[in-house]
Amino acid sequence: MDMMTSIAQLSTSMSVSKLQMNINTAMTKKSMETTEAMAQNLIEMMDSVPKFPGAKGSILDVRA
């Protein structure tokens, strides 16, 4: 019976490890999607800054 218990414990341990890995992968994917959306919004905000005729580039007023 001891061998059966060991096999059951190993199986459970492997299942828990697989679940944790899947959760970590999903969390990382969601984090990457959120970061991508934030970067896209930042790019859109920078593109909306008024450009002055004859000037190179544009002015970006940033105050800390």
Q: What proportion strand? A: under 5%
Biggest pleated sheet: none
Number of strands: 0
Q: Which H/E pattern describes the elements?
A: H
End-to-end separation: 68 Å
Q: Rounded to an integer, what's the Rg over CA atoms?
A: 26 Å
Q: Which overall shape is indicated by the principal axes computed on the Cα atoms?
A: rod-shaped
Number of helices: 1
Q: Average pLDDT value?
A: 86
Give the helix level as a range of percent: over 70%
Runs in which pLDDT lies below 50 for 5 or more consecutive residues are none
The chain-level structural class is mainly alpha
If you had to describe this structure to a student in words, what would you say it looks like?
It is a single chain. This protein is mostly helical and 64 residues long. It is built from one helix and no strands. The chain is rod-shaped. The protein starts with a helix and ends in a 17-residue tail after the last helix. The relative contact order is 0.06.
